[in-house]
Specification:
D-Maltodextrin-Binding Protein, domain 2, alpha/beta, DNA-binding transcription factor activity, elongated, Arc Repressor Mutant, subunit A, 303 residues, LysR family transcriptional regulator, LysR_subst-bd
């Protein structure tokens, strides 16, 4: 039995919740994953995962062994990475996650540039507006927008964003420009369930005016920032998104920024990664590269 691969299969099954999902994650036949798990349990002479037709659940022994397996795998991978890092050429695969729009606009070009200088390195990029669990999804580096929870992860702040409200010129034509957040209560608005959004209750924060909240009328509700911005450009209503999401539309004159004096609170952007991966050369070099590029980008936008 390949003990190392068996432990990785066990971790994959525990994280994915099923043998078939673990097989897809590892790119291996289902029968191989099932056999590895059975061999591991046979060697340990105990049941690690209770399996029924409806569900799978870790036993008490399985939970203890899972923690030990994670520690062993991460220690070995870090050691292998340090040894490989004695060569100038990076190799292997780096896994990264980022919010969808931010990832598409800023992380994809950055990853492409990094890969172009490291031909033996591959990357796996997972774009999602939910906070992916780095351990469960075996992620090396994550981009986080907003205040960080105390998660035990290492973090580097690389910039900041702010929320911005805007509307199409046609929506504002013939009407007074909103001068206070409360003026939005009787205007059609576009809401979406995304990063930093509060549904139909919008909270504005600024050093001068403090905290102002307004309950808006969602003429349209969508599930992505891109759709919300597109609808705002079409004149459906006022939109409120993160600054980078509306930047192109504002620059092109398709959206007019509103209530900027009520919206100056910085929203942090961080790169986060596990301490156990921090010395792995591909992770260390990518974090250094990405942090420098993102800081440069956001400092130029702040001028």
């Amino acid at each position: 039995m390949d003990h190392f691969r068996a432990m990785k299969a066990f971790i994959a099954v525990a994280d994915a919740g099923s043998l078939s999902a673990a097989a897809r994650r590892m790119g291996a036949p289902l029968a191989n994953i099932s056999r590895l798990l059975a061999q591991l349990e046979g060697q340990l002479d105990c049941v690690l995962i209770e399996r029924t037709t409806r569900r799978m659940a870790l036993t008490a022994a399985g939970r203890d062994y899972l923690d030990a397996c994670r520690h062993v795998i991460e220690t070995l991978e870090a050691s292998e990475g340090r040894i490989a890092g004695q060569s100038e050429e990076l190799a292997g695969t780096i896994a990264i996650t980022a919010p969808v729009s931010f990832g598409r606009l800023q992380i994809v070009p950055l990853v492409a540039e990094f890969l172009s200088t490291h031909p033996r390195l591959d990357a796996r990029l997972l774009l999602s507006d939910r906070n992916i669990d780095l351990v469960e999804e075996d992620i090396d580096v994550a981009v986080r927008i907003g205040d960080l929870r105390d998660s035990g992860l290492l973090a580097q702040r690389v910039g900041s964003l702010r929320l911005v409200a805007g509307a199409a010129p046609r929506l504002l034509k013939g009407r007074a420009i909103p001068s206070s957040p409360s003026d939005l209560a009787d205007r059609p608005c576009i809401t979406f369930s995304g990063l930093m959004q509060g549904g139909s209750r919008w909270v504005f924060k600024s050093k001068r005016h403090g905290r102002k909240a307004v309950r808006v009328h969602p003429r349209l509700n969508v599930n992505t920032a891109e759709a919300a911005v597109d609808a705002a450009i079409s004149g459906v209503g006022v939109v409120r998104v993160l600054s980078y999401q509306a930047e192109a539309a504002i620059r092109a004159g398709q959206l007019v920024p509103l209530l900027q004096q009520f919206e100056d609170t910085a929203i942090p952007i961080n790169l986060v990664y596990r301490a156990t991966r921090s010395d792995t050369p591909r992770v260390k070099r990518f974090v250094e590269f990405a942090a420098a590029r993102l800081r440069q980008h956001h400092q130029s936008r702040a001028r």
